[in-house]
Amino acid sequence: MSQASSPLQYFPATHIAGAVVLVLLVLFALLWPVAEQQQVTSLTVPLPATPSDGDVTESVQWHSDKVRSGDSLSTLFTRNNLSAVDVIEIASVAPKDAIRLYPGQQIRWTTDWENRITAIELPISPLAKHTLERSAEGGLSYQLIERDAERVPRFASATIDNSLFLDGERAGVPESTLIELAGIFGWDIDFAMDIRKGDSFSLIYDEIFLDGEKIGNGDIQVARFVNQGREITAVRYEDKNGNANYYTPDGISMRKEFLRNPIDFFRISSRFNLQRKHPIYNTIRAHKGTDYAAPTGTPVKAVGDGKVIYASRKGTYGNLIIIKHNARYETRYAHLNAFNRSVKSGRYVKQGQVIGYVGSTGAATGPHLHYEFRVDGVFRDSLKFAFPQAQSISSADKPAFLTRAKAMETWLDGNLSGARP
Fold first, then answer.
1. Which CATH number does 268-380 carry?
2. How far is it, in rounded angstroms, from Cα 73 to Cα 111?
3. What architecture is the 149-256+389-421 domain classified under in CATH?
4. Are the CB atoms for 130 and 144 separated by under 8 Å?
5. Intervals of CATH 3.10.450.350 along the chain
6. Measuring CA to CA, how many Å separate 202 from each of 129, 246, 264?
7. Checking DSSP bridges between strand 329-336 and strand 140-146, what pairing results, if any?
8. Cα angle value 257/258/261 (rounded, 5°)
9. pLDDT score, position 17
10. SS in 3 state form for 82-143?
11. Which of 19, 306, 314, 386 minimizes the number of CB atoms within 10 Å of its CB?
12. What's residue 326's pLDDT?
């Protein structure tokens, strides 16, 4: 005959002993004198504070990690032992650009006792960041937080003795601002060929400050370049739709339909010449383009908006890109070392977009770009062709622009007068 089973046999002896100890502790607490209970100091544990912009209490512990090349939000979370469920929730709440990470980005977050995300910050710049916070109900909510920076105008001028960049940097102008300056005047001045000793420039641009500390440089507001005695002034103007461009003081666009050169600041090794003797074949063969000598890998830019109609290898051209700009204009970029990955036949490109890189493919004696410019199917000298103007100030905006242009020129002249000895 089997013996009646006891419920205690299903629990380990350690669990039974623990239960006995727990019962004894409860009885001890109930029988302890009230007077003694009043001597016990209570401990209040602060609730995690909701993180606010720039104001985090000590009770919240923030964690951070720097985004590495190839990281996604998922790989970053895996590396930090965070929940994949949170990745899915964040992706469902935040806009796509918020979770598109880039190398060097510093991501910050807080978690609860279950290691679930309670708040996360994904910075865009010193002035903006994407934030997500978990509410009391448990869901995450998204917010774009932006801060206002102070823009302080700064005047600078220089006379060119060596080069735009060397003399500009000596005058304290940041490299990025000098590049912008060259871009503004690049339609009218060939910075590879036209610059002479004694040329000069002056400009007023914004310096950006946050909490009293400089964090960057803003746009050029007005600039003037004197090249071989020719004075050109450009004024920045932003229309009611927020579109900003540069114009002459009369309201004519500084932007032509095409860039003068497809490559920046390098030597022209061979010009357009229909009677040139070919360096390889040693015969008179027309050189229907312009050659730019530059190191292999130098970026090549599209000189105007258009559609890529060819991007492959083609005989003596080597690696060749052909862009159709409209019914009349076509440009060709030959001897390329490689194409930009985004440039393929049938795709559209924007003016200034990098389309490829200098090389020496095809019939080339060394690394250079062979650039051709065609109008109505006829080869033309891109260095001498009179490019059409882009759209100028509209009649509706012109009164406001002319008022601003006059004020900006007066401002620039006043600073120049003060800068002269």
1. 2.70.70.10
2. 16
3. Roll (3.10)
4. yes
5. 63-146, 149-256+389-421
6. 35, 15, 21
7. unpaired
8. 160
9. 56
10. CCHHHHHHHHHHCCHHHHCCCCCCEEEEEECCCCCEEEEEEEEECCEEEEEEECCCCCEEEE
11. 386
12. 80
Per this entry, what is the length of the chain?
421
Burial 348-363, CB ≥16 within 10 A → b, else e: ebebeeebbbbbbbbb
Interatomic CA distance for residues 276 and 291, integer angstroms: 13
Strand 338-339 with 329-336, pairing: unpaired
> Which tokens is 251 given?
């309201």
pTM: 0.59
Structure tokens at 342: 């985004």
Token output for 186: 């690049």
Parts of the chain with a pLDDT under 70: 1-59, 265-266, 272-286, 419-421
Architecture, CATH, for domain 63-146? Roll (3.10)
H-helix or E-strand spanning residue 16: helix 13-31
Measure the CA angle with vertex 152, ends 150 and 157; round to 5°. Answer: 155
What stretch(es) of the chain map to CATH 2.70.70.10? 268-380
The tokens describing 63, both together, are: 């964690």
Q: Write down the pLDDT at residue 108.
A: 95
